[in-house]
Amino acid sequence: MKIAILSRDATLYSTRRLKQAGEERGHEMQVIDHLRCYMNITSHQPKVMYQSQPLIDIDAVIPRIGASNTFYGTAVVRQFEIMGVFTANTSMAISRSRDKLRSLQIMARRGIGLPVTGFAHSTKDIDGLVDIVGGAPLVIKLLEGTQGIGVVLAETQQAAKSVIEAFRGLDANILVQEFIKEAGGMDIRCFVVGDKVVAAMKRQGAPGEFRSNLHRGGSASRVRLTPEERSTAIRAAKAMGLRVAGVDLLRSNHGPVVMEVNSSPGLEGIEKATDMDVAGKIIDFVVKNAAPNVPNVPKKDKERDGIKY
Ligand SMILES: Nc1ncnc2c1ncn2[C@@H]1O[C@H](COP(=O)(O)OP(=O)(O)OP(=O)(O)O)[C@@H](O)[C@H]1O
Ligand SMILES: [Mg+2]
Ligand SMILES: [Mg+2]
């Protein structure tokens, strides 16, 4: 099978591992920089061009699209979909997962456990917003934040008010969330491929830090999931329409709650913490599903979210 990895950098751990796992299984693997793809959108003859040549005979693509290239990256993935090429994640699911607020709304509709979360536009509504999440302590998150930057724990009502006002004064969009204190600075990354959790790790924040991000000094290790955690992760990925997903959970005393769902989850942390061949699981899934008679975009996906295409 001929499989393209859409990645900006062939030297990244995740990209290298996917290439290696594919080659080990006898597939022809090509790393393609999606920002260097250009497209012929014409009806009947849709094409993706790369290095002046049309990309032909590709059986499947594995998108590894960074958050800063979502717009162009998903356009390239969509073009492959139009050409009938199987994709590990659809363009629609990737776009959807990039918006934290929208993701939470989609999961809420499916009844998936979430931290109690509030969102408002006007600072005139701060008191009501704080009431929604049951008052301080609470967590305030910049919608555009990553790697734990822009996630703040406000211990008191007054601190919460000041931080919210400051963020809104900068015109930043923020979420306000119930603080899951009992998680003790630990979150769980569930790596979902197809309808299975193929690996899971816990990340523990540095002492005195409520954020578990490895970029903030957290450390990762293998974890055993409860059946409820496992099914929550699978349902979250499904609700988002993602075939490959990193689902982040917190252990709350009202059960597992989903913090976010990532459409290009990194392989390095999870493979090193668990000693699992996660890249191999992704390749096996793609190969199984890229068979010619499997529809490219499932019917369910086409109708999800009220969008038809
Ligand atoms: N409501 C919460 N209660 C307790 N801890 C939380 C809560 N929300 C976030 N955290 C902690 O803070 C960390 C960072 O939060 P989150 O994952 O939402 O943002 P981020 O990591 O900056 O975003 P991204 O993962 O997209 O880069 C989480 O991994 C978790 O450990
Ligand atoms: Mg996170
Ligand atoms: Mg994320």
UniProtKB/TrEMBL annotation:
EC identifiers of the protein: 6.3.2.-
PANTHER family for the chain: RIBOSOMAL PROTEIN BS6--L-GLUTAMATE LIGASE, RIBOSOMAL PROTEIN S6 MODIFICATION PROTEIN
Cofactor: how bound: Binds 2 magnesium or manganese ions per subunit.
Family: Belongs to the RimK family.
Protein's organism: Leptolyngbya subtilissima DQ-A4
Protein residues bound to ATP: K141, E178, F179, D187, R211, S212, N213
Protein name: Probable alpha-L-glutamate ligase
Source taxon at top rank: Bacteria
Keywords: ATP-binding, Ligase, Magnesium, Manganese, Metal-binding, Nucleotide-binding, Protein biosynthesis, Ribonucleoprotein, Ribosomal protein
Cofactor: Mg(2+); Mn(2+)
Stretches assigned to the ATP-grasp domain: 104-287
Binding, Mg(2+) 1: D248, E260
Positions with a binding annotation for Mn(2+) 1: D248, E260
Gene Ontology MF terms in the entry: ligase activity
UniProt binding sites for Mn(2+) 2: E260, N262
Residue sites binding Mg(2+) 2 per the record: E260, N262
GO cellular component labels: ribosome
